[in-house]
Structure formats: C-alpha cells, structure tokens
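Q: What would this chain look like folded?
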Amino acid sequence: MPTIRRFLVAGFAAVSVAACSDSTADPSTGSPGPTTLTSPSTLELDTPASEGTFVSDRYGFSVAMPDGWSGTDATIDWGGLSLGGLGSPLYASITDPALGRYLEVGAAPVAEGMDLAAWQALMDGAAPAVCGDPSPVEETTLGGDAALGWTHRCTDGYDVNKLAALHGGRGYVMFLASPTANDEAEDRRVFDSIRSSFQFTD
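A: My prediction, written as structure tokens:
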C-alpha cells in the first residue's frame, strides 16, 4: 500500500508559481478560471510502494523518480483547456525539494481527428504572458508514442521544458519547471531521463 510522506519544501513561498502555467480550467464547466497560485511551502506527497517509481492511476502512466524526489497523483480531472499552477490537484506531480523542480503531467480527452501538431499548439498557447517566445519544436517520443517538445524561459524565475503527446484518445502534457538559477543542461538531462522512463499503463 502507498506510504504517505510529508515534506516541507521551503524557499519559494514568495515566488509566483504561475511561471509555467496560467489559469486553471473549471472542471464543472470546462471554462478557464482565475489564475491558480499554489504555494509550494507545504505539500503532502504520496510515494507509491515501489520506491523510485511513481504511478498515476488517474492519467494512466508510470515514471521512474530520481533519487530524493516524491510524487502525488492528481485528484481532479484536468480539462485540457488551460494550465494550472505548480502543485495543482489537476496534475500528477513529482517534485525535487532540493532544487525546487516540479514535474507535472496532465491528460484530457481530445476531439476526434485532433493531431499532434494541433495539440502542441494548444498547449503552447496556454503559456502565461511571462513566458517568452518558445524554442523551436523538436520531435521526440513519450511512452513509445510520437511527441513534440519545446521550452520556455519565463521572466518570473522559471525555465520550463515541455512535451505534448496523444495516446488513447487523450492529449498529454508534461512539463518540468525549474528555477532559472539551476543548471539548464542538467534540467534538460533530468527531464529527458524522466521522459525516457515514461510508460503508459492504460
């Protein structure tokens, strides 16, 4: 059975966590709501029994967690219309308390005929105004399926590696938000390592 662990993640309570996402979607209406600023000062993190592996039952995937990271599954379905704040209950999250990194994953049903390029464009358009022009889109994979990756550098203190994919009638978004003070190349290495371990479970 899962073991509940509680961690205090200090140092970012005063930082706007809208860095890598803007307004949340109202799950009852599907329409965007006000910007969610979730303070990461105290988080309850649920680590699965298989140490080092995080499993999301809500979004149907598993990933290998780096040493020292912990995770919690989403508790509310993400509507797929807009992005929520770091630590939002709309996302399955794994976090690195040592360096303030947040790896967030959401999945939502997509319209029949939606292609990957269109889904990536929707997710890119969900970035808040503080995130500047995106990097060129790169072809990659997620769980063996085609995916598109890109990055944003945001003026409120976060660099964000992002990825969009389609699987089983759902659109997936995965992003790693990391303070700009962290090493950019190391952030990318961590993101790619987690991406390469990703497996769909549904």
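The chain has a mean pLDDT of 78.
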